[in-house]
Amino acid sequence: MAYEAIRTTADVARRLALGQTREDHYLELKGREPYGNNHEGKRECARDVAQFANASGGNLVVGAEERDHVLSAFDSVTHADEMLRWLHDVLKGNLEPVPPVEAKVIELLEGAQLVVLNVPPSPVLVARKSADAYEFPIRSGDSKRYMTLMEIEARMDNRERLMKLRLEQVK
């Protein structure tokens, strides 16, 4: 399976089955209030987006509870529009460069609202910046890890990845 954006209720129905869908290389499930409105919450949000941009792309679904990495329930995001604005500000203030994230509010048939961040793979490395340092998260299986210096150096010189991403955009 490859990165595929979640944009509609039909996409949710097709991709997110309660008790069956597992978090994987392309999908991370978050409860309805996954990030506190504090410094650590903002850093964690930025890391979650950067991990997908630095890997093969992916979807961050807010309002989707998980138990042992399996989707267990939908829990409506109460102020979805406010969350979209907050996400935009967090990414703008914490990532360099800011990847082209598509953030959507999707209303389910039951009335619950999800916030979905569709993060395509980035042709350049995306860093989470702090005062005087950078970190490079990357998705690995169903979790994130941080790139080593050797991985960062190799990736910065990887023209093959750039060519592959460009070809995928043409398809």
Write the SSE topology:
Elements: H1 9-15, E1 27-30, H2 39-53, E2 58-62, E3 64-67, E4 70-74, H3 80-94, E5 95-96, E6 102-107, E7 113-119, E8 127-129, E9 134-135, E10 137-140, E11 143-146, H4 149-156, H5 159-170
Parallel strand pairs: 1-2
Antiparallel strand pairs: 2-7, 3-4, 5-8, 6-7, 8-9, 10-11
Helix pairs in contact: 2-3
Description:
It is a single chain. This protein is of the alpha+beta class. 33% of the residues lie in helices and 27% in strands. It is built from five helices and eleven strands. It has helices at 9-15, 39-53, 80-94, 149-156, 159-170; strands at 27-30, 58-62, 64-67, 70-74, 95-96, 102-107, 113-119, 127-129, 134-135, 137-140, 143-146. The two termini are 16 Å apart. The relative contact order is 0.19.
Query: What is the overall number of helices?
Result: 5
How much of the sequence is in beta strands?
A: 25-35%
pLDDT average, as an integer? 91
Count of individual beta strands: 11
Order of helices and strands, N to C? HEHEEEHEEEEEEEHH
N- to C-terminal separation? 16 Å
* Shape summary: globular
Oligomer: single chain
Would you tell me the structural class of the helices and strands?
alpha+beta
Strand order of the largest sheet: 1-2-7-6
Task: Give the radius of gyration.
Answer: 16 Å
The residue fraction in helices comes out at 25-40%
Main β-sheet: number of strands, strand sense, barrel status?
4 strands, mixed
- Pick out the low-confidence regions: none
